[in-house]
């Protein structure tokens, strides 16, 4: 449950950041647009352990946010996961929204709608395609171990999640338990993916 809570919370926050950003990059032209897109694509491969280290430095006692006491808490784990999955979701979503914008461009321009209305229209009409981006973010988040281990500390009954528990039990030589936890992790990932697929299929069927 802690694994799901951390990852789903991070996913919601990441989607609230990444999806509007992706839509804005699709509909608006500005000076650093190409550089921003290139940066997002590059950050898709950002090493999670580096993210964990940076978050650790910022949240440690000597860091700028040390007074908040967030290090070795689920909140720190959520922050690390958000940083990791935002570029992934934004990059995938931008590809879908850019193609949709090519179809909607003339219509929305002729209607003289605002930038915000363009963004809302694209996000709504591409919602099923955006589920793929969200699922990609969920998959990366639920399987993350490096950054989570650094900022969470793998504390029993506090910040230990399935991935860090698997790493711990493997290090102890408890391969049977580690494998069992791995099956639970796979079941969780598949369950969420099937649920999202079912929701998208139900919506599509209801339109016919």
Q: How does this structure look, described?
A:
- With 208 residues, the chain is mainly α.
- It has one domain (2-160): MetI-like fold, CATH 1.10.3720.10.
- It contains 9 helices and no strands.
- The chain has helices at 2-27, 33-43, 48-59, 74-110, 115-125, 127-142, 146-152, 162-171, 175-206.
- The longest helix has 37 residues, at 74-110.
- The radius of gyration is 19 Å and the shape is globular.
Task: List the defining traits of the structure above.
9 helices
Task: Summarize the helices and strands and which ones pair or pack.
Layout: H1 2-27, H2 33-43, H3 48-59, H4 74-110, H5 115-125, H6 127-142, H7 146-152, H8 162-171, H9 175-206
Helix pairs in contact: 1-4, 1-5, 1-6, 2-4, 3-4, 3-7, 4-5, 4-6, 4-7, 6-9, 8-9
Distance between the termini: 37 Å
Question: Regarding quaternary structure, how should these chains be classified?
Answer: single chain
| CATH topology tier name | MetI-like fold
Gyration radius (Cα, Å) is: 19 Å
Q: What sort of overall outline do the alpha carbons produce when their principal axes are compared?
A: globular
Contiguous helical run count: 9
Judged by helices, strands and strand pairing, the structural class is: mainly alpha
**Number of structural domains:** 1
């Amino acid at each position: 449950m802690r694994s799901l809570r951390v990852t789903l919370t991070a996913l919601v926050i990441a989607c609230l950041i990444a999806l509007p950003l992706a839509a804005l990059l699709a509909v608006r032209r500005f000076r650093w647009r190409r550089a921003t897109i290139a940066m997002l694509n590059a950050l898709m491969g950002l090493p999670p352990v580096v993210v964990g280290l940076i978050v650790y430095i910022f949240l440690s006692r000597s860091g700028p946010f040390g007074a908040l006491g967030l290090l070795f808490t689920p909140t720190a784990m959520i922050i690390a996961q958000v940083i990791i999955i935002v570029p992934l979701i934004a990059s995938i979503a931008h590809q879908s929204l850019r193609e949709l914008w090519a179809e909607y461009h003339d219509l929305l321009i002729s209607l003289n709608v605002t930038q915000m209305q363009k963004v809302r229209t694209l996000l709504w009409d591409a919602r099923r395609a955006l589920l793929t981006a969200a699922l990609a973010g969920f998959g990366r988040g639920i399987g993350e171990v490096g950054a989570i281990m650094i900022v969470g500390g793998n504390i029993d009954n506090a910040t230990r999640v399935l991935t860090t528990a698997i790493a711990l039990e493997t290090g102890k030589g408890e391969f049977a338990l580690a494998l069992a936890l791995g099956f639970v992790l796979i079941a969780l990932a598949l369950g969420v993916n099937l649920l999202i697929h079912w929701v998208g299929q139900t919506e599509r069927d209801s339109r016919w």
